[in-house]
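job 3f2a | input accepted
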Amino acid sequence: MNINLNTLYEDEINKKLLELYEEGTELFLVGGYIRDFLLNKECFDKDYAVKGEGAISFAGKAAKAFDGYFVLLDKEHDIARVVMPDKKNTLDFAGCVGQNILTDLKNRDFTINAIACKIEKGKSELIDPLNGIEDLNNKIIRTISEENIIDDSLRVLRAYRFAAQFGFYIENKTLKLIEKHKSLITMVSIERITQELIKLFEGDFAGENLYLMNNSGLLDEIFPELIPQRKVPPNLHHHLGLLEHSIECVRQIEILISQTVILSEQSEREDLKQQSYSDSHAMALPSLRMTIKNFPDWAKEHLYREFSSGIKAISLLKLATLLHDIGKPSTWQIDEEGRHRFIKHEELGSEMVLDVLKRLKFSKNTMKYIAKLIKYHMYPSQLLHEGIENLSEKAVMRMFRRIGDDMPELILLAMADRLSAKGSEITDEIVEKNIQGLYFLLEKYKKSQEEVRTIPKLTDGNEVMEILKIPPSPILGKILKDLNEAQISGDVNTREDALEFVKGYKIVN
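job 3f2a | predicted structure (509 res):
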């Protein structure tokens, strides 16, 4: 680990803060910023421990000096925030616990977050009393003490969040403490839990850590709605029990968007092998030897867009994936031939998930998005049931129109669903044909979006209203969308074709 501490002192923000010191003031960069700095990761949020004067008072001076916005976070514990004018950087100031930096660090969650850097004129000095740098180098999440977990029980979830975010593993003593104190998570505010979940799902190793959370029992505490899935066993279509299938789907999404893989050769990190998978899972993976090409960059860019303030679409997609079969236990039937049926589970699931998301205090827009993905998660594969060669152009365009901009994530969910279900009746050929078909749909969707931007405008809403004698209404938008679809499919090519299409349009009241 190459560390150049001079960059911390040379940082313009730190230089400015040094000018605000009173006699006896000491300032330490702590926590996540130092961790990310040592990992060479970009970080815009700086955390400071203030010794020798009040942190709130110091934050007030900083807000004035930077022309920033002052936010009082916790008067009792002497914590305040400064939002910088660019609204990208934030500075958090907290009083040094026990007015001693060593005491402060020993009260933190994990050793990798218990590293500080004293900000002084002309030099910077690292303080690492708990060997956090060594754990960073060895990619270990290690709690500082059992008391620290009890003091803030959100830490039982934060361990998995950091493991998912950095690809680290949680050492065994910490795992045992999490299992011992998992029920304390119910004492934490839902808002804090949800924020950690969002960050966990944004990480590249969320799937592996969901297995860990399942093994420790923490998953049940956070998502009690998933407990009924434990009763649904493997069947002819699924090589995993239902809950493990749901978790595996998340892992498959991460594999699909990370690199090109050959399914029979998917390597597992040795440090996570022993932790992540229960004996019943037994590392069961599809056996086919087909190469799954990398998910295209344009689709990845779409997945990593900011869906709402501070939340990326990929996080919500993984959450939807974990919950995509939530309706199955309530629709589970075994027919006379011993086949497992889950009729309309996707429709029921899209309704059930709203209660889960409401409990987690997600926005209405987010709830609508996740419910939509769950409702239609089988749609692409159902369309491909008879093979690519038998696809109906109109049916494909109808799906694109119904799903809209969310098509890339729906196809990725369908791929992960297929790759996570390899029961005895699911042959390699079935999986390969389905995945190829889904990639075909993805490319067809991209092409259709490009064509939408280039097709000529043959008529407009005013002319349509005049021809059909209708007022402005939702039906007008539907007519124009159907006309657009007809142009893309080649059924309408000229202005005359467009006018005939409009005149012959049947309006259903």
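job 3f2a | The first strand starts at residue 26 and ends at 30.
job 3f2a | closed
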